[in-house]
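Supplementary Methods S3. Input chains for the assembly prediction are listed below.
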Amino acid sequence: MNLFSIIEEIEKVDPEFNDRISPRRDVIKNMSSFGSKVALAAIPFALGDLFKKAYGQAASSSVISVLNFALTLELLEATFYNTGMQASGLVTDTAYIAQIQADENDHVKFLTSAITAAGGTPVTTASFAYLDFTGGGNGTAATNNGPFATVFSNYQTFLAVAETFEDTGVRAYKGQAGNLLGNQTYLTAALAIHAVEARHASAIRYLRMSKYGATVLPWITSTASGSVDVSGAASNDTGVAAVNANYGGATPENTTVQGGVDITKLPSLEGSTTSVAVATAAFDEPLTMTEVLAILVPAFAQPK
Amino acid sequence: MRYAGAGVAGIGLLGAASSCHKDHNVTPSGATIDVGSGDPGILNYAYALEQLEAAFYTQVIATPYSGMASVELSLLTDIRDHEVAHREFFKAALSTNAIQALTPDFSKIDFTNRTAVLTAAKTFEDLGVTAYDGVGYLIQTPAYLVIAGSIVSVEARHAALIGNLITFGNFASSDQVDATTGLNATNNPSVVLAAANTYLKTKVSAKSFS
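Predicted structure tokens for the full assembly:
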């Protein structure tokens, strides 16, 4: 499957979904809360069957495209963590990173099942000509000598790349939510994965700040506002200029106006109004699929 | 009552168009406020939860628990400020459609005790994440889904941080993140409000979403 074929005009998602699954509505309602141990174990099968019964072979191609985009990102993250955890002596916070690694691999399995059950063809690592986590891919091959050349030999580089990977994953999911508007099964699943990626981002940032003295916070904090910062230079709080684009785009992370409301003009307990730091940190911003792919391709990945 | 803040820029999302003008006389504590229906109902639901969180953290910072480390004070102050920003955002955006100010009930929380405060914080943050993610599919207006998305990931960042403060490494605990799928839990409004109402004198309902 050509990765780039997923950049296409997005149709309105399946309007008949609720009718299709109406006998199962209670099943969805009950499954949406993962409190029960029985539900935990049953979910992969039940959800797969539910997808099949809900969609049969008729899932809209736009939903499948969104899921495959998500799966692409999860494949990259899973491979990144798998490689890092296998690099002898690299990761010292093993239990901490292993949790994140496990989640990303679980996301790959979940999305793969979901796409298959919906009648789509899931992307796999075989869909890529190469992956290059140093950011040095040149379109033809990995050079493994990009800006993050020491990603798998220097733990602090690994963690810095992980941080931005997670922040970018959050923004990428956020950018796709609108394409799943009203879709109980898939929007809920996408939001549920997006929340976990945000947990990961917070966790990596907290690890770096609390244990390794990095000047970051669990949330993305910009201190400069003004005209739209497409480049991301004013929005990037990582201290690594090479990842400016991950924090920029049409709705950069230093955005301070939400839904027509200027957050900096609202009252706060900091002072009379709200600082740019708080206004920017309190809201995370989306990246479009095009923006994400521009960051990833060819530097980190190249589809076949 | 129209929000009369210090020069709020922007029209606000819902103020002009709606035909529903609530009576904003103060309701006695102990009464139940319903969030309403449709997208305004969803935004009011979010506004209710943000009010609760903002009030909680305001108290936390006003009366810090014994032995609060300076880095904890700084992080919890940030969270307070984020929740206040969220609350004030919804208040401004909802304008005449906003539910009233809610009266919290934190009598069960010992604000002098670190474990008690962080446990309550984790409850609120985890609940907020499951709440937003549980109603996302009900949002009909794309712009509101964007806003909900912008906020929920920050709540998840908060939740992970609080988990880490309680026990290092507890940022995606199995009570919140499914061990098989890696998905965060989601909850419907009935479940969320049943929990939230234990911390509210003014109870909240979401009849049209149950």
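The two ends of chain B are 28 Å apart (CA to CA). Residues 1-11, 16-25 of chain B have pLDDT under 50 and may be disordered.
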